[in-house]
Amino acid sequence: MQFTDDVIPEHVRALGHQHPELLAIGMQGAVFRLADHRVAKVWFHAPRAELDRLQNLYAEIRLPFHTPEILEIHQGSRWLVTIEAELPGRPLHEIAPEFGTTTWPAARDCVIDVLGELATTPAPPALFAMTVLDETEPIRHDYRPRSSAEAPTAPAQQTAARGSWLDALSSLLARRVATYGDQLDRLVDKFDTKLDCLQQRLHAINPTHDTQLVHGDVTAGNILVDDQLRPVSVLDFGLLSMAGDPVFDSASAAALYALWSPDTRAIEADFDAALIARLDHNADGLLTYRAIHALLIGNAHDTDPFDRDSGVPLTAKLLNDPQYTAFLT
């Protein structure tokens, strides 16, 4: 099936919208502009229960940016379709200056502005019911909020008693690698050694916060900006949205900014320097979470209905990079 096939917009026309305009197509689905300041999204994988949870999450998110609102959910002939309010702004990647130019920092800082707001936003209750990727259970299914009668404790003690973010992420990593680790073992030097070390690095993290709103897929396409590169809207929660450590979001956003670019490692290093300076992140934490994120999404395209490029080679490239090889061996 090609992107130009009529089966996708036909899902929208069947709802009475005769001239949908394709805005974007990605891992989760295709988005079309309608004629009434709304958009339609055709979802390639999501079941109804997942979209119900996402609708609840969107209703609870409180950020100083516009965020999605699901107005309607419809069953199409093949996929589900949501009707949502159209959000203001243009995708950052459409107008961002190129990396290495004198104006590049404006694009980087726009992303960090979003990350900073996410980092200070507690996870809403609906986030604890969300699943990630193709999982069927919420990642923090055993989390128990502290009651008002409980005395405050150190973060590490809190999470050990009430469902640890680190344990939840560690288990998710193990499950994901179990599905395609054989592919990585053929491509990554000393893969088992690096994976063991990565788990140790993860459990050495002592997060300052572990129940913040983690978007999980902060890309230059999911941030809409005004003409001055100020963020006005943040889109597409759900793929890896979790209650967790905001450093995870920062680490993954730096990698996702230009994932397929030959400058990816240099862009990450530039982001990291700014993240350490502005958000007081830890360098080891950024490297650890970035490697984990790469492993989590490495085979996320394997069930893509359009057979787009696998992310496995990109994950292997990161793990074979000299910096990560030294860090994980």
Automatic annotation (TrEMBL):
Coiled coil: none annotated. It holds the Pfam family APH. Residues 17-329 form the Protein kinase domain. SUPFAM superfamilies: Protein kinase-like (PK-like) (SSF56112). One of its GO terms (molecular function) is ATP binding. This is Protein kinase domain-containing protein. It comes from Kribbella italica. The lineage of its organism: Bacteria, Bacillati, Actinomycetota, Actinomycetes, Propionibacteriales.
